Amino acid sequence: MILEHEIPNGSKLYFGKAARVKREIERVASDILDANGFEEIVTPVFSYHQHLSIADEKRLIKANDEKNNPISLRADSTIDVVRIIEKRLGRNTQHRKWFYIQPIFTYPTTEQNQIGAEFMGEKKLSSVMKIATEILHKLEVEPLVQISNIRVPKLLVEMFDELSLDDFKHTNIDKFLNLEVEWLNKLVYLQHIHQLDELLIIVPESIKIELVKMKELAQEASSKNIVLAPMYYAQMLYYDEVFFRMIDKNEVYARGGRYTSSDLNSVGFAIYTDTLCEKIVLNDT
Known about the structure:
The protein has 285 residues and is an alpha+beta fold. It has a domain of 162 residues: Bira Bifunctional Protein, Domain 2 (BirA Bifunctional Protein, domain 2). The protein contains 10 helices and 11 strands. Strands 1-5-6-11-10-9-7-8 form an 8-stranded mixed β-sheet.
């Protein structure tokens, strides 16, 4: 029996102070994004293309349109924003900087509010990472910035037959160390920029190239609270190079990266409004 006051597990309800905090987060973010030349877009709740951005299609909430074509609720905004601008609005706008404030939905009934930005045609990830940092700083939240590179785990899997991407998804440190490769051991424990110079001398050239990209992003960042995590693997279909997470303890407040859609290189980020709202409300009590 479902009682009248019940809401589905994973759905969001905001009222009173929490609702005010959520609105303030969105106001601060929209003001900063607007000042940086981003225009707002609100994408449809239903989409034909969510499978392009969600690694596990079981997370999609699926339905059918009037012609019985499969559709799903929006489970990710990034690819839909780029696709709609490029394919549907391309003749009407040349603008390449867009932001959105909207929820995503995943199976079975999980709702997640996000603030995101996409800089289409841009390769410099620091251009949007600085904006995400500015938004959180304005809200008096100073998380740890973790910089990674999706190419590193993929290259290591190509180099070592003993490794698979699952080892990186589950952070199988023992398996990495058991290979008894000096530079790989140092890579496992790499955290700080000052550790890189020694490592760059001994790693294979292909790994060196990707580590340099991480170093450059860390040097360009406006935050001083930065760690490097080259062995971290993000389970996203579209990140193809450097990416970052802004975290505090076990909570992720923002995530962003470089990706390619329809042969267009872009960078973007998403701020997780619900997690951020919960922290601010808790800090104010």
